[in-house]
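queue> pop job 88
queue> type: inverse folding (structure -> sequence)
queue> payload:
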């Protein structure tokens, strides 16, 4: 009887495989079937993304564009570097795809060099003399935007970054070496990499507090390049890489970056996954952090000795659900050095996250202070005008 059962199971397995072959469905694993250097994948006019189960499926003969945008970037098929920077890959079955006459596993379609992202200014700006830029990939005649950034050229700071957070963001391609940040052409003669150096940070803090600067800038506490649109908010490597533009950063104290801010990013992804639909996220900065009256901290000064590249006093995430028109603003005070008297003064709204509806978010005990506001109470941040009709939770 045992033998009959094994035969039956084996027959059923062969039947299932045969059905899959007949259907010709392709199923791709984020971790196994996408190799480096990772191309940009476009399907139906948007970036490729995993389904609710965390994998990617295509029907037989369904196609997607595989692109390697950038100077001297080319598509590689197996061990052959083509002369093309974009190809059309068609599902055959399982993990086998066809590109022209080439037939092989999807993971064998790569780039010779990591694709290059770029930024484009959008006409019309984003108010108050700010510039609106989109960051993404130019593929042939179409620019595919990963996120948009509202940039203040006078202070050399990013006001906010706008991106879409989807349920698929909980699935994340791992194994990508962190690339270096790029400045592009947005910052003129300001060398952002130099400003974030420990040497410059210590010098700037020393100008404000004197010889005790060593107490503020240490190996464990320093100003990090805080991502606004989080790298981990994007499932595929090419979109992750595009987050490493300085326009997508703000000087953020490391304790908060790895503490409350990381907790918010992780909890928000889980919440949107449970929600089952995308939301729009505006991540921004406001004000200037200081060590006391008239001691505001900037990473450098302009030719007239006016401070530029401010260390923000606040960082925030405005989450907006376009379907229900509900929103909430998560706020973090960007300083681990303030006492409770100061943080109480800086907490300017009723903390709605104390309600039971926000049990999905737990702040970390990192020495910083964070709270949450409804949309109307947070307009001190000069938020984008949105048709908000309730509180998102």
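queue> result:
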């Amino acid at each position: 009887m045992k033998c009959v059962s094994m035969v039956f199971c084996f027959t059923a397995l062969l039947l299932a495989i045969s059905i899959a072959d007949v259907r010709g469905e392709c199923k791709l694993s984020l971790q196994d079937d996408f190799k480096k250097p990772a191309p940009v994948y476009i399907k139906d006019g948007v970036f490729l993304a995993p389904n609710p189960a965390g994998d990617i499926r295509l029907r037989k003969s369904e196609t997607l564009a595989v692109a390697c945008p950038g100077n001297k970037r080319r598509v590689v098929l197996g061990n052959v570097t083509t002369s093309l920077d974009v190809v059309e890959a068609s599902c055959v079955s399982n993990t086998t795809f066809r590109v022209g006459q080439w037939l092989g596993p999807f993971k064998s379609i790569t780039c010779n060099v990591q694709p290059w992202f770029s930024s484009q200014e959008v006409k019309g700006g984003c108010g108050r003399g700010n510039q609106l830029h989109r960051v993404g990939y130019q593929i042939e005649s179409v620019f595919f935007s990963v996120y948009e950034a509202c940039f203040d050229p006078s202070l050399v700071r990013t006001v906010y970054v706008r991106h879409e957070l989807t349920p698929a963001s909980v699935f994340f391609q791992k194994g990508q070496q962190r690339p270096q940040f790029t400045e592009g052409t947005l910052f003129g003669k300001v060398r952002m990499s130099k400003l974030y150096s420990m040497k410059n940070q210590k010098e700037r803090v020393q100008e404000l507090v004197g010889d005790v600067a060593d107490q503020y800038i240490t190996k464990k506490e320093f100003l990090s390049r805080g991502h606004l649109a989080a790298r981990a908010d994007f499932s595929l490597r090419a979109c992750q890489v595009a987050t490493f533009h300085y326009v997508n950063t703000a000087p953020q104290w490391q304790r908060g970056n790895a503490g409350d801010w990381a907790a918010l990013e992780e909890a928000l992804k889980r919440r949107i996954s449970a929600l089952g639909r995308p939301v729009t996220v505006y991540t921004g900065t406001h004000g200037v952090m200081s060590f006391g009256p008239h001691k505001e901290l900037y990473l450098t000064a302009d030719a007239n000795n006016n401070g530029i590249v401010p260390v923000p006093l606040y960082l925030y995430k405005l989450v907006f659900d376009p379907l229900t028109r509900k929103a909430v603003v998560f706020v973090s005070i960007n300083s681990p050095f303030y006492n409770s008297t100061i943080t109480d003064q800086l907490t300017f709204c009723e903390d709605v996250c104390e309600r039971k509806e926000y049990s999905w978010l737990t702040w970390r005990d990192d020495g910083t202070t964070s709270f949450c506001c409804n949309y109307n109470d947070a307009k001190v941040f000069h938020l984008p005008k949105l048709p908000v009709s309730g509180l998102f939770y």
